[in-house]
From TrEMBL:
Protein's UniProt name: Hypoxanthine phosphoribosyltransferase
InterPro entries: HGPRT, PRTase-like, PRTase_dom
Catalytic activity: IMP + diphosphate = hypoxanthine + 5-phospho-alpha-D-ribose 1-diphosphate; GMP + diphosphate = guanine + 5-phospho-alpha-D-ribose 1-diphosphate
Lineage: Bacteria, Pseudomonadati, Pseudomonadota, Gammaproteobacteria, Oceanospirillales
Classification via PANTHER family: HYPOXANTHINE PHOSPHORIBOSYLTRANSFERASE, HYPOXANTHINE-GUANINE PHOSPHORIBOSYLTRANSFERASE
Recorded GO MF terms: glycosyltransferase activity
């Protein structure tokens, strides 16, 4: 079997055997509910939303359509998993283009796991002189390994159990970000 065929078989097996934690409909419902809270929090403001690539892109696209505020959109790319299922140091691949000085910044990402990534991005935004920095995640993974005890995002759509997750922007070895719900990789 070629390497490409082996990979394709592994990816299909992972998808087939995955445990569905939140269906596509549940995800959409949770995002719609969250959008009301975000809209309310930024009423009267002109925030800049920073999408954390790659994982945050699908959640951000779903969320932003439902935000009834004048929003500027920008992105950054920071990664500490780099296609692996356990994380290392945060690596900055692309920094935001927008000037953040004096701005209300909303960081949008797919997952708060340990929280190292979000903390590093918050620090970078504050260092640029942001007026306020809030965080918004699709999923908060439930465990006691947070970078700071009790670490939470300001806005969270859903909780998930302590599995390696994929779908809605979250990858399995770089693939399956396109899966429409939130799935746990079944361990063997
Ligand atoms: O809370 P943490 O333990 O720091 O992990 C969360 C981060 O991990 C993932 O990014 P990843 O590094 O996999 O890059 P990606 O977005 O390109 O998939 C995810 O998109 C978050 O940004
Ligand atoms: N795809 C994915 N990325 C992550 N980054 C941190 N935790 C996770 C996870 O469970 N799944």
């Amino acid at each position: 079997m070629s390497i490409a065929e082996e990979l394709q078989q592994e990816l299909m097996r992972v998808r087939r055997e995955a445990i569905e934690l939140h269906s596509a409909d549940q995800v959409q419902e949770a995002i719609a509910k969250l959008a009301f809270a975000v809209t309310e929090a930024y009423s009267g403001k002109v925030p800049v939303m920073l999408t954390v690539m790659n994982g945050g892109m699908i959640f951000a696209a779903e969320l932003v359509k439902r935000l009834d505020i004048p929003l500027e959109m920008d992105y950054l790319h920071a990664s500490r998993y780099l296609g692996e299922t356990s994380g290392g140091d945060v690596e900055w691949i692309v920094t935001p283009n927008a000037s953040l000085a004096g701005r209300d910044v909303l960081i949008v990402d797919d997952i708060l796991d340990v929280g190292t990534t979000l903390l590093s991005i918050i620090d970078a935004c504050k260092a640029q002189g942001a007026a306020s920095v809030k965080t918004c995640v699709l999923v908060d993974k439930q465990h006691d390994r947070k970078a700071k005890p009790g670490l939470k995002a300001d806005f969270t759509a859903l909780d998930a159990a302590d599995y390696y997750l994929f779908g809605m922007g979250m990858d399995y070895k770089g693939f399956w970000r396109n899966a429409p719900g939130i799935y746990a990789v079944k361990e063997h």
